[in-house]
Amino acid sequence: MSGLSALIPLEGYQPPGVESFDLPPLIPGQDWANKYLLQAVVSVVLIFVFWRVMSRKNALVPSKGQFIGESAYMFVRNSIARDTIGHDFKKWVPLLIALFSFVLVNNLWGVFPLTLMPTAAHVGWAYGLAGLVWLIYNGIGIKKFGPVGYLKHATMPPGVPGPMLIIVAPLEFLSNIIVRPATLSLRLFANMFAGHLLVLVFVLGGEYLLLHSEPVINKVAGVASLLFSLLIFGLEIFVQSLQAYIFTMLTAQYISSATAEEH
To answer: From the record, what ranges are coiled-coil (predicted)?
Structure first.
């Protein structure tokens, strides 16, 4: 029991929690002007500059930078837009590239040394992105089929017997109109929030054990915790990239289903 007490500091350590994500405003009295907003604005500038530079590079033998840009473009164009939306995919490529770039860069702020906070770890940003996607895919569906036609398209699958529509139509409405934006946003938020919270636990806990506790075993545990946090950072990069891909892929699927001739 005494050994366990030596390993667990009981005074002076404040474990990270939800309050760790409640950042102070950059402008006093303006709660909206916070670090999350700054990261989002900077990401837009960086993304614009990157793709602007890439669009001007057309060397026959691409440089490393041009190769990265072309690979990213072809990945979104072919693996997401073309394979998901189909023959009418080209007009959606700019949107999907912009969305993928924005989500990816704002996720990667979580491992950048000067920020260490993914923008989507604040649920409002995840809701905002999902809300934008919801407006886009429902808007294009209404534009193509009309309000009543789109509602029928989204809630009445072809081939379902009439009496079954009493059950199927409400479920389809919930799934396609209500649940989609909720799951899209919460998936992104939960992964960014949980991943960053895990990093905070190991980094802050390791720092406290190493620098602010006396027992040698605590200092050894602190070093191990900090080293393990590096592995978590590597895992975070993978999860952040994967979530950007999933978010963009689901957006393409929603666009495809909203415009398909058959549900």
So the answer is: none
Mean pLDDT lowest for which of 23-32, 75-84, 148-157, 172-181?
Answer: 23-32
- What is the residue whose two structure tokens read 């602190």? 222
- Selected residue with higher pLDDT from 16 and 223: 223
| Helix residue ranges, H only, the chain | 2-7, 35-56, 64-74, 83-85, 93-108, 123-145, 147-155, 165-173, 180-211, 216-259
Tokens representing residue 235 in the block? 């895992």
- Average pLDDT rounded to a whole number, residues 67-88: 91
- Is residue 133 within 8 A of residue 181, CB to CB? The reply is yes
At 27, phi and psi to the nearest 5? -115, 120
Token output for 4? 């366990």
* DSSP-derived secondary structure for 27-57: BTTBTTSSHHHHHHHHHHHHHHHHHHHHHH-
DSSP 112: S
What is the DSSP secondary-structure string of 171-214?
Answer: HHHIIIIIIHHHHHHHHHHHHHHHHHHHHHHHHHHHHHHHHS--
Q: Which two tokens stand for residue 233?
A: 């950072």
- With beta carbons less than 8 A apart as the criterion, state whether 246 and 120 touch: no
How many alpha carbons fall within 13 Å on the CB side of residue 167? 4
Query: Which is higher by pLDDT, 76 or 4?
Result: 76
Within 8 A by CB and 6+ apart from 56, the residues are none
* pLDDT tens profile 25-48: 888 888 888 999 999 999 999 999
